[in-house]
Amino acid sequence: MAKQPELDDFRVPYFESKKNGKFSLDDFDPAAKPFSTGSKDADRARLSEIGAKLDSLQECLHAQQKRRVLLVLQGMDTSGKDGTIRAVFHEVDPLGLRIVPFKAPTPTELAHDFLWRVHSQAPAAGELTIFNRSHYEDLLVPTVLGALDEDAFDVRCRHIRHFEELLADSCTTIIKCMLHISKDEQRTRLQARIDDPTKHWKFDVSDLDARKHWDQYQVAYRDALAATSTEYAPWYVIPADSKTHRNLMVAELLLRTFEALKLEYPPAKESLKGVVVE
Fold it and tell me: The whole model's pTM is what?
């Protein structure tokens, strides 16, 4: 009997140096649906079920005001970062939930170290924060464009590991998802945006420029994930050609993460015992 897939089968192993790593994105099929029931309706029903559980767990997180959770979403254009957020957190009360979209750094941000703009956006106590793109943009993009050489790449990876370790030591649980889309599926989604006038606002010519560097981005992602997937901040490769399955897998991963925290509501206040509101 074939082994049933587990979430940790999609966890990236850690190699401090990209020179000795054997991890490859080619080992993961972007079209795979390992956690699907085989029915879109059933998958969506499960997603809704998970959403209700996440809503309750996130409320506990917010009520406790002790722990923090950071979800990092990275991926090529059209891999579905926005769609994942809408689908996975549809049931979650926005209280205690914050979404941070990272775009190209401003001149002020560029005048500081590359993590300067990121640290202030890390989750506060009781908060679930989602990075839509992240500090990894400042590693991937300059590498592909030739602004970072191999040594500078390794230095930034080291700084990222130390930064994420600091967050983890401050009661932040970090989960990082690389939404792994195929080049063919990206073409289909980009063309759909071009063909639909109501989607033109989502399209940028720079998306086509980035697509020309597809192979370089795949190498940069491989090296970045392998060098920064640690015990305290692991990376998971999420097959993303199927939007429904992508959403379900991220939700399952987040649910497991929250359940492992064993969250509880704060103790009842003795001062409120017997109080009657008139």
Answer: 0.94
